[in-house]
């Protein structure tokens, strides 16, 4: 009579083990399914972020190309500089090479300064105009002469303004546009000469 009880007890024990094994198995499967779903969502978000990043980069690239095209089609030089002794350039459009023979990088590196190109006789008048503009917060417009890389003289017209920002070193920032009007000036000089002759 005792032996069947023992077998029955052993049989019940095996059934309990099977039940826990099934519970453990389904728990692992459920965990794996949740993990796979989570990873799928993460990868989906990652792909979306990657796509958005590429799209933003393409938009920025297109904007840069449009800006470069616009600047290259302007009839002069767009610049941003510091109000210091050398007019230290923070940005210059590529047109500066046509005007002076120097690349923008020559100005950025300090190999050449814009102040050095301006005829000394005109420098003082330019600084006076700039300081008057700073005090009155006006757009400044003036004409002066500069020498290019081959020492050829150009008459240029510049429009500039303090933009209300300071650089990291505390200096005022100026933005402006420089246009070569040498040919126009030559025509004006001829007209003035003939007017004097006729008078």
Describe the structure in brief.
By secondary structure, this protein is of the alpha+beta class. It has helices at 2-73, 95-100, 104-108, 114-117, 120-136, 182-198, and strands at 77-82, 89-92, 140-147, 153-166, 172-180. The protein has two domains: 1-73; 75-190, PAS domain (Beta-Lactamase, 2-Layer Sandwich).
Structural class: alpha+beta
Query: SSE order in H/E notation?
Result: HEEHHHHEEEH
Residue share in helices? 55-70%
Number of strand elements: 5
> What is the total domain count?
2
Terminal-residue CA separation: 148 Å
What is the second-level CATH architecture of the largest domain?
Answer: 2-Layer Sandwich
State the CATH topology of the largest domain: Beta-Lactamase
Uncertain stretches: 1-12
Number of helices: 6
Strand content: 15-25%
CATH superfamily of the largest domain: PAS domain
The CATH class of the largest domain is Alpha Beta
Biggest beta-sheet profile: 5 strands, antiparallel
Silhouette: rod-shaped
Strands side by side in the biggest sheet: 2-1-5-4-3
Question: How confident is the prediction overall: mean pLDDT?
Answer: 81
From the alpha-carbon coordinates, what is the Rg to the nearest angstrom?
38 Å
């Amino acid at each position: 009579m005792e032996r069947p009880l023992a077998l029955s007890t052993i049989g019940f024990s095996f059934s309990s083990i099977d039940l826990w094994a099934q519970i453990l198995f389904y728990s692992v499967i459920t965990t794996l399914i949740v993990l796979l779903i989570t990873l799928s969502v993460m990868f989906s978000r990652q792909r979306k972020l990657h796509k958005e990043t590429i799209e933003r980069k393409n938009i920025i690239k297109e904007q840069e190309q449009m800006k470069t095209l616009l600047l290259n089609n302007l009839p002069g030089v767009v610049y941003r500089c510091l109000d210091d002794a050398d007019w230290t350039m923070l940005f210059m459009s590529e047109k500066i090479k046509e005007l002076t023979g120097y690349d923008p990088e020559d100005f950025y590196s300090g190999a050449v300064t814009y102040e050095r190109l301006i005829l000394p006789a005109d420098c003082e008048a330019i600084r006076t105009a700039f300081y008057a503009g700073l005090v009155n917060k006006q757009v400044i417009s003036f004409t002066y002469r500069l020498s290019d890389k081959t020492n050829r003289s150009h008459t240029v017209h510049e429009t500039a303004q303090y933009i209300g920002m300071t650089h990291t070193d505390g200096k005022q920032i100026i933005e402006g546009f420089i246009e070569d009007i040498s040919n126009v000036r030559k025509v004006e000089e001829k007209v003035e000469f003939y007017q004097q002759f006729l008078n």
